Amino acid sequence: MENKRKHTMNPFIRTVVFFAILLVLLLAGFIGLRFLIFSIPEPEGLSPASWPATFADNFSLWMSEKDGELAIDDIGLERLDSYGLWLQVIDESGQEVFSQNKPETVPQSYTASQLVSAEDGADTEEYTVYTGTFSQNGCTWSYFVGFPYAIGETVIYYNGEVVSRLQPLAKGLILAGLLCIGLLILGYGLWLSRKLSMISLGIRDLSLRTYKPVKEKGVFKNIYQALNKIDGDIRRSDKLAAETDQARNEWIANITHDLKTPLSPIKGYGELLAEHPETEAKNARAYGTIILKNVRHTEALINDLKLTYQLDSGTLPCHFQEVELVRYIRELVIDMINDPAFSKRNVSFDSDAAEVIHSIDPQLFRRALQNLITNALVHNPEDTAVEISIQSRMDDQVHIFIRDNGVGMEKDEIEKLFSRYYRGTNTREKSEGTGLGLAIARQIITLHGGEITVKSQPGKGTEFKISI
Fold first, then answer.
1. What's the pLDDT at 194?
2. What is the pLDDT of residue 403?
3. What sections of the sequence does the record tag as coiled-coil (predicted)?
4. Which DSSP helix (H) or strand (E) runs through 201?
5. Residue (of 2, 1, 15, 11) closest to 224 by Cα position
6. 78, 143, 374, 436: which has the fewest Cβ within 10 Å?
């Protein structure tokens, strides 16, 4: 589920977040690069590149004069040792008066010209030298501090007059850049508003059933896909609802007609008996037989309606028990063959196992099988062979097949076959059925945790397969 919810962030927010992250990364990279380039290592970590000059200038704080002699505090000397630096102090005549960690290549005296030419940041192959002076009580000393790494310095010279002339141009370029950025943001906002407006109109069109599918591409590809899918689902749902309503109306009309059919003779013969009480006993019995037959048919219609809605609502009580299916189905087939209506039909039974034990509701399961077998007999010519068989598999499933070599069915008829609002078109004559038989059969099989499938070809017959 989580995989399906990615890319659900608002595209505008996603773009803003992207540019914000990019800007932060650029700033972090710039700061890091600048710190890397303009910093140097020292015992306490990285310090700014100006640290050597600052250290050299501030070293005079650890110097003092006493009786015309130079004294250096211990802390200053400890800093020199810990940082790996060297120090040389010379007097006004250029002679060395003190040194600490000084390399052998450093001279002990300097001429006036050498002192004048000495400058901060003088670089050799081994170290960089910074200079400083210390004065106290009329005495002055110069000193050199050597750092064991190269420190670069760059001095930029520029034409102040040209810079002043270019300043308005620079301001103009900055304003132009800001204006371009503003225009880009405005253009993006207009583009985003247009896309969002299209999506809003699409949602409105979905509610009005006037939506037209759009190409699934661009930043809003996922949204377009969702809208197109919803539109397809709505169209299929509307089509199914329309077909269901039509089938329901046709079914209600059929049920109404079927109820009127038995009620007419019941009413007619009942009136005869009521108006002619002297009717001969023979005729009275005949009338009563017809009335009872039609009453039973009416009861069957009502019971089927009740059963299908009980199965739908789950209110039908079930009584499951272990049943030996081979014997159970064989006896059912024998009972149907003994029915005068099917006594001359070609019905056979076969099983690949002598015994198959399974838990079923005997009465309900019998009803499902009877409906399927009756369907094969009623909707096919009298010479049609109907075969009922059992196959017990290693997958702990039992498969029951009801096959015939009759007229078969078209694909569109198979798709509607198990709808309780549908009656097949292959009935050879007027049936006294309710049109609910196959729907009830599937509901009962589903109640047993199984499934029922059908394969059929026009002119080649039909096969129902029950798997439980």
1. 83
2. 92
3. none
4. helix 160-208
5. 11
6. 78
Dig out the tokens for 60 from the structure.
């005079």
Q: How many CB atoms lie within 10 A of CB 434?
A: 24
Point out the least confidently predicted range of 60-69, 358-367, 434-443.
434-443
How far is it, in rounded angstroms, from Cα 451 to Cα 465?
8
Cα separation of 385 and 345, whole Å? 8
- Mind listing the pLDDT tens digit for each residue in 371-415? 899 888 888 888 899 999 998 876 678 899 999 998 988 888 887
Q: Which 8-state DSSP code applies to residue 3?
A: G
| Cα 354 from Cα 330, distance rounded (Å) | 12
Please give the backbone phi and psi of residue 31, each rounded to the nearest 5 degrees, phi first.
-65, -45
Q: What is the dihedral of CA 350, 354, 359, 362, to 10 degrees?
A: 50
| DSSP letter (8 states) at residue 5 | G
Q: Which long-range contacts (CB under 8 A, 24 or more apart) does 47-51 make?
A: 49/151, 49/152
> What span, in angstroms and rounded, lies between the C-alpha atoms of 40 and 99?
24
Strand, coil or helix: 361:
coil
Please say if the pLDDT value at position 216 is more than 90.
no
pLDDT, residue 441, reads 86
Under 8 Å between Cβ of 130 and 52: yes
Q: Residue 310 — pLDDT band, cuts 50, 70, 90? A: confident
The sign of the dihedral angle between the CA atoms of 23, 29, 33, 35 is positive
H-assigned helices in 38-159 = 51-58, 74-83, 112-117
- Cβ neighbours for 392, distance < 8 A, ≥ 6 positions apart: 351, 352, 353, 356, 398, 399
Tokens of 195: 């896309």
Name residue, tokens 């501090």: 145
pTM of the model: 0.46
Judged by DSSP in three states, 53 sits in helix
**By 3-state DSSP, what share of the chain in percent is helix, strand and coil, each rounded to 5?**
50, 20, 30
Q: Which whole number is the average pLDDT over 221-228?
A: 86
Contact residues for 316 (Cβ-Cβ < 8 A; gap 6+):
307, 310, 364, 447
Q: State phi, psi for 39 to the nearest 5 degrees.
A: -140, 160
Rounded-to-integer distance, Cα 42 and Cα 85, Å: 11
